Amino acid sequence: MKLGLIGAGRWGKRYIATINDMSHHQLVHVVSKNPETKSLIPKKCRLSLDCMSFFNDKDIDGAILAVPPTMHPSLAILSLQHNIPVLIEKPLALNVDDAKLLHALSLEKKTLAMVGHTHLYSHAYCNLKEIIKPLGRINKIFSCAGNWGPFRENIPMLWDYAPHDIAMCLDIYSGIPEKIYSRKTTDMRIHKNGESIEIDLTFKDKSNAKIQVSNVLKEKKRYFEVRCDKGTVIYDDQALVHKLQYNSSRKTTFDPISLCTEKPLYNLINIFCKNIENNIRYDTSLDLGVSVVEILAHCQSLLNKK
Asked: Which residues have C-beta within 8 Å of that of residue 222, sequence separation ≥ 6?
């Protein structure tokens, strides 16, 4: 599969490195102003500054957007209008109207659009979903994610860190929460654009998901715990060896679970390419992407009132 990429910043570089390691897919066109990009891409890969030349490139089977979320709607619209399947980094958009517009345009053009909630494609997370199936009712999810920074001027921390956690919660519960609550928990004086936010999602059966996100943590964290009637499963993305652990309700200790080593981004790109190869015109990650934006927007409105 011949892929094109727009954006070669921190996350774009990860896409480049991952695709370079894939034997069945290749990077054929990159749009970037980063002077380092030429040394990162294959020799035969086209490098340009012009997005229009990118979307008019007939060699591209699928486009990947690794740009700031403010640019997602305009570039995704161009991709869909040119009938080029597109993989959009999270969040899908920074407001509900833009998210719904992209959803509607994908359906209208019958062109694939996927949202890169990368952790959903982690082997640890996929195994977690299988392990909890026989464990009875889900009572509670606790999720915590963050790092020191980034401190962005144009993207609220909430929209930077929370999309992954919200996406995993919605995926686990297979539904939309009935109640949403959010509040800031850290004094902004720690850093001008630093904050910690707590989100509570209450679902139809009264089970609850508590999400904590922050850009003022001393160390990087991505922790996701699912508590069921018959046991608890933990996905710890920052664990050095065992990212997944299981504990039955009768035990006091957790058992580590061995997993294969393929990275989530590798799996995400593979699924995107397989969808294109199989002429799949629609992916449920787009529905999920819209729902995540709706919840983020609701949380942001609650925070703005306080």
From this structure: 119, 144, 145, 164, 236, 237, 238
Question: Would you kindly state where each structural domain of the chain is located, as residue ranges?
Answer: 2-117+265-280, 120-262+295-305
The CATH topology of domain 120-262+295-305 is Dihydrodipicolinate Reductase; domain 2 (3.30.360)
pLDDT in tens, 129-181: 999 999 999 999 999 999 999 988 889 999 999 999 999 999 999 889 999 99
Helix axes 96-109, 285-305, angle to 10 degrees: 170
Is the Cα dihedral 95, 305, 149, 214 positive or negative? negative
- Kindly report the backbone phi and psi dihedral angles of residue 262, in degrees, each rounded to the nearest multiple of 5, phi listed first: -60, 135
CA–CA gap between residue 191 and residue 232 (Å, rounded): 35
What is the model's pTM? Answer: 0.94
Tokens of 266: 């590798």
Q: How far apart, in whole angstroms, are the C-alpha atoms of residue 276 and residue 282?
A: 10
90-102: pLDDT as tens digits: 999 999 999 999 9
